[in-house]
Specification:
By secondary structure, the protein is mostly helical. It has one domain. It is built from 15 helices and no strands. The longest helix is centred in the middle third of the chain and has 22 residues.
Amino acid sequence: MQRYDWLKKIQRMDPETEFTEIYRISSWYEFPWDTVQSLGFALYRTYAVPGIGRLLAETGEFTDRAQKRYDDTTLILEAVVEHGFGSAQGREAIRRMNQMHRRYDISNDEYLYVLATFVVVPKRWLDDYGWRRYSRHEIRATTNYYRELGRHMGLSGIPETFEEFERLLDDYEREHFGFDPGGREVSDATLGLMASWYPAPLRPSMRLSSVCLLDDPLREAFGYPAPPALLQRAVRTGMWLRGRVVRLLPPRRRPSLARDNRQVRGYRGGYRIGELGTFADAPAAGGCPFPHAKAPADEARADEA
């Protein structure tokens, strides 16, 4: 294989109908490390919305059990990519995700914003640090993939194009970003988690390096002081140089799955999709704003999706 053979394959595919396979190739073969990192930063951005950050802090899941929440989120999302929306495993993963969301009073607008981060942030990350940028086919396929995920979540008013997702994200952040003690607590726990993946002597510098990758509105929403300009430039240049090195490597022949990464630590002995995430005997007050049926009808609804 030559370096651009995967891209040539993608360009022969239809992003309107083969979006899952295109997204799979991009995520597992072309940009596996960048996809994991950028999706992590996409979810991290949502903590700067006070309503979201406060809710996550109140649950204690993202502060007291940050590693498990990271593992669960990664594995649930990957199951849909790996098996597809029409598979039994994909439907089970979406069902598990919807069951967890149902416990909380989350607005449709908040869900759409989170979905927008998954569409927009990876593209912007690759623009800055990738060994190449997303092709037009990949942008459209990624957009269609997350539109389909949003449909399975029961969302309304899902944007049609990448540009609409981008406007939604920028407008929402401009209006809603702000400091909240709960959001700061979740942010601190997340930065601590990311630093914990490295040897102890490196952890303080890795945490600071993560802050160097934050744009000013995001950093200011958490109340972090600006890193030294020289350090920030060095970190971002280092990330850019990594992309230049990766460009010289041969194409990946075997998929790089998130569950095989050393950052996923809680399920080395294996796992069942239906056992991932959080469970409760009763829904939290307020419930989910979307019309989810209860089991066994919920099972039937997911099977039809």
